[in-house]
Amino acid sequence: MAKFERHVFVCSNERLEGAARPSCRPRGGRQLKDALKDAVKAAGLKITVRANEAGCLDQCEHGPVMVVYPEAVWYGFVKLEDVQEIVHEHLVHGRPVERLRLGESCLNTPSCPHRT
Questions:
Q1: What is the pLDDT of residue 12?
Q2: What is the pLDDT of residues 21-68, one digit of tens each?
Q3: Per-residue DSSP letter, 101
Q4: Phi-psi region of 18 (alpha: psi -120 to 50; beta: other; left: phi over 0)
Q5: Residue 75 main-chain phi, psi, to 5 deg
Q6: What is the CATH number of domain 6-100?
Q7: Hey, where are the domains in the chain?
């Protein structure tokens, strides 16, 4: 079997009600992963792209989030209607979707304006 060229991890972590930080599953993380897998297959990328559900990716305020490796491109506030664009633009043509991309200033940074 050929190795995957890209891995996409979609956060589907779920915290207990009342937790200090939000979580991705209640905001659609699981549905995003399912839609992504379907879109990857429909685009004929199943052999080269692996879409996985992940636990917490620690970008909770930006959720639901996904990250594409090896490029380490982080997407935040992703909606179901964004999945086709991510697959077509990024996974097929290698062009990250800038409007959804999380900048370095927000990744693992307490000073990110999205953190409450």
A1: 80
A2: 666 666 666 889 899 999 999 999 999 999 998 887 777 777 788 999
A3: B
A4: left
A5: -115, 140
A6: 3.40.30.10
A7: 6-100
Give the pLDDT score at 103.
82
Q: Dihedral sign for Cα 85, 90, 93, 97, please.
A: positive
- Enumerate residues 6+ apart whose C-beta is below 8 A from 94: none
Task: Mark out the alpha helices in the chain (DSSP H runs).
Answer: 29-42, 83-85
Task: Calculate the CA dihedral of residues 31, 32, 35, 38 and round it to 10 degrees.
Answer: -110
C-alpha triplet 75, 4, 2: angle, nearest 5° = 170
Distance CA 58, CA 14 (A): 12
Residue 70's Cβ-count burial label (10 Å; 0-12, 13-18, 19+) is exposed
